[in-house]
Design brief:
alpha+beta, 15-stranded antiparallel beta sheet, 4-stranded antiparallel beta sheet, 18 helices, globular
């Protein structure tokens, strides 16, 4: 696809620092790559590398120096080659020309660095690590893990193990027996069930090995990059050659000893050797399939990098590439940087921390942010990439169910808005200064109290995955049912604690105390919670008969009938959606009154009472006040869902235009960190919704697409459907709907 080649970013000058790095990756590995003062650098990141403090550690930094140096001349280029996922660097110095190709094996955790020169050169490949000694972390630096606001004395990032071995550099981090998991369980009064709980930090070892053909150890050195001291381990080529290959093999395992981890690493290296002739082609084919299944190219014939519309299409593809680099991650792509964070001083000069830093935690997942990374994968057809997020919740299901049993004596999984990778609230956010006798199951936190409904978006994603693909989701149904059970049983439990009546006069659950996001607190019948429960229950009951027994189906139908209706209010005589029936205070800046539009789809194109949703957009004073394109703000999505073309276009352009950083899709920090993945994700969703919306079997085409925007796109719809179309100069030039029988369901709104 020519448009994809046009989007392959090329830099013709070297970078000043890691803040001007370029992403590269595959499988579950991400690299930040840059050339600075003639030397190649890249950071190593791999899914699931959480230390004792639940910090998402980098695996180190690689530095490559060539002698004589082709990158000390005047001619230079660095290109992200989107079609095959690789990164290519060219340099010329007098008569010396060298090319370095970096690519990551999608199917094996191996990074390849291929150096080719027209004349023999010597290669020095260094492994640099700032965890060569223990590092004390203070103050805001502890936001990188799960020990923020800790009262346990000094917080330390423990040292790695690094050594030369058989002409390689071997490096790994082995978690100690005691971690933040133990402190969290103790503080949250769950020690009685600790032995039953899932603990992802125990026995975790991660690291890798740097090796190169004809390379040998050449000593160690110490230095400082930006604000962080480090130690380096050198490998040097024994002689000058025209072709030099380097490999970094990585491994993450749950093992009892480092020697067992090393055996697994050796197996990875052996497998890489056996597949050396075929690995590149396999990786190239994976990326070819990735790009072939979905794309959005705006003004593809224009190729004008100064155009905000063209930038929006290009940056959509660049961001999707970054998501593709964690397709097979053991953990989800994190909203606050994914695999591509870099030295934090280049995000915010106040954070004079190591490259391990990211704001809002490492193993901590925030549902309202994470969902925006994963919703766009439905329409982009990246269904396999959603599994890491789904499995994150599955692994923690039993822990969340134990919370309900221990604290309140009822069934169901209690998932909070912010949860660790073991399903419990973050210890700091849970509240370290709690009043005596305060409910141990509650977070003592003005933002997070009663914020339980955000997990329902992931329930809906699982259900939608089945509707889009017809894949078997039986493994997820118990999870969905447990999340719904919590609401059914907990709000009856709370009502019975208050008095004799379990339901209101109409037989509905009383969803109080509740919360509409982090914004409308101490809410009575939050509209976002009601919309979530109505939608998930309806979709669960729509599953094919083999998913639910007759008894289960009756149980969920009864619960659905108990969900109260959404509340409304008026502004200047205009009926609008209320965020709740009543609430105590406004705590954040989320327009929760529009959540029945997105993600819940109760209001929208072709649906009843769309005017009420549009009134909410136009007249609700807080919805107007909160409106923005920054970070996780979703106003572009709301506008698209309601068919407000100009508003959707303006907000989406603001979201997806160039970030202002050297890599144009490194947005942020917004409310979180850079690169801000919930910024990019919400931009993707909005652009998709402008082009294609679905309601049951109906497919609405161009529901909010500007008449003067040319586009070529391919997106997915439910029931194994793809829609590919081209618009040029105000006309739909081509439309391909597969399978063909789905053409009758397309409503062209252009």
């Amino acid at each position: 696809m020519q448009q994809l080649k046009d989007y392959s970013l090329i830099w013709n000058s070297q970078s000043k620092n890691s803040g001007e790095s370029m992403p590269c990756g595959g499988g579950d590995i991400g690299l930040n790559v840059w050339v600075e003062n003639g030397d190649l650098y890249f950071y190593l990141s791999k899914s699931g590398t959480f230390d004792e403090n639940n910090t998402f550690l980098k695996l180190g930094r690689i530095k490559v120096k060539l002698s004589p140096n082709p990158f000390s001349g005047l001619k230079f280029s660095q290109q992200l080659n989107l079609p095959d996922g690789s990164l290519i660097i060219n340099g010329d110095n007098d008569n010396l020309h060298s090319q370095i190709k970096i690519w990551v094996d999608v199917y094996r955790p191996v990074i390849h660095v291929e150096i080719n020169s027209n004349k023999p050169v010597k290669t020095e490949a260094d492994y640099e690590n700032w965890r060569y000694q223990e590092r004390i972390t203070n103050g805001n630096e502890n936001n990188q893990g799960s020990m923020k606001w800790s009262k346990d004395g000094q917080v330390k990032t423990l040292k790695d193990n690094i050594t030369f071995k058989n002409n390689t550099v071997l490096f790994y981090h082995q978690n100690k027996d005691t971690t933040v998991f133990d402190a969290t369980v103790r503080e949250q009064a769950l020690e009685s069930v600790k032995s039953q709980m899932f603990n992802p930090l125990a026995h975790l070892v991660f690291g890798g090995m740097l090796t190169g053909d004809g390379m040998q150890p050449a000593g160690t050195y110490q230095g400082k990059y930006q604000n962080t001291d480090f130690e380096g381990w050198k490998l040097q080529s024994k002689r000058a050659v025209t072709r030099q290959n380097l490999e970094i093999c990585l491994n993450t395992s749950y093992v009892s000893t480092a020697s067992l981890w090393e055996q697994k690493l050796d197996s990875t290296a052996d497998e890489a050797t056996r597949h050396r002739k075929t690995a590149l082609l396999q990786t190239q084919n994976w990326w070819k399939q990735f790009w072939g299944r979905s794309f959005i190219c705006i003004d593809p014939d224009d190729n004008n990098p100064q155009s905000a519309e063209w930038q929006t299409g290009r940056n959509y593809q660049l961001f999707r590439y970054m998501l593709g680099c964690n397709a097979f991650g053991s953990y989800p792509t994190k909203f606050n940087g994914g695999l591509f964070t870099y030295d934090p001083v280049y995000v915010n000069s106040d954070f004079n921390c190591t490259p391990d830093f990211r704001n809002w935690g490492g193993g901590l997942m925030t549902a309202q942010n994470q969902r925006l990374v994963y919703w766009p994968m439905l329409k982009s057809g990246d269904f396999e990439m959603m599994k890491p997020q789904f499995d994150f919740y599955l692994r923690s299901l039993h822990n969340a169910e134990l919370r309900s049993k221990v604290y309140w004596g009822h069934n169901g999984a209690c998932f909070e808005e912010q949860i660790e990778n073991f399903g419990l609230p973050n210890r700091g956010e849970y509240g370290l200064n709690r009043p005596a006798g305060y409910d141990k199951g509650m977070q003592y936190n003005a933002w997070l109290e009663y914020t339980w409904d955000t997990v329902l978006e992931f329930c809906q994603m699982m259900l939608e995955n089945q509707r889009y693909t017809n894949e078997d989701i039986k493994e997820y149904v118990p999870f969905i049912e447990s999340c719904l059970t919590f609401f059914n049983e907990h709000y009856q439990y709370l009502a019975q604690k208050r008095g004799m009546k379990t339901f209101d006069d109409d037989g509905h659950l009383i969803l109080y105390p509740g919360s509409a996001g982090e914004t409308y607190k101490m809410a009575y019948n939050s509209s976002s919670t009601i919309a979530a429960l109505q939608t998930v229950l309806t979709r669960l009951l729509a599953l094919p008969p083999n998913y639910l027994t007759a008894e289960k189906r009756k149980y969920w139908e009864t619960m659905l009938n108990r969900i109260p209706p959404i509340s409304f209010r008026e502004f200047d005589g205009h009926k609008t959606i209320a965020p709740a029936q009543v609430w105590q205070r406004v705590n954040n800046v989320e327009p929760m009154q529009l959540y029945p539009v997105f993600p819940w789809g109760i209001y929208g194109i072709g649906k009843p009472n769309l005017d009420v949703a549009i009134n909410t957009w136009k007249y609700d004073t807080l919805a107007i006040k909160f409106r923005s394109f920054v970070g996780w703000k979703q106003d572009n999505i709301f506008a698209a869902r309601m068919g407000l073309t100009k508003e959707a276009a303006d907000l989406t352009l603001s979201k997806l235009k160039d970030s202002g950083r050297r890599f144009p899709a490194f947005w942020g920090p917004g409310f979180d960190w850079t690169p801000d993945h919930n910024w990019g994700g919400s931009g993707m969703i909005g652009l998709q919704e402008m082009l294609l919306q679905v309601d049951g079997t109906k497919i609405y085409l161009f529901p909010a697409w500007p008449k003067n925007w040319n586009v070529h796109f391919k997106l997915h719809a439910p029931y194994n459907t793809t829609v590919e179309a081209t618009v040029k100069n105000g006309k739909v030039e081509s439309l391909i709907v597969l399978p063909k029988e789905r053409e009758k369901d397309v409503i062209n709104m252009y």
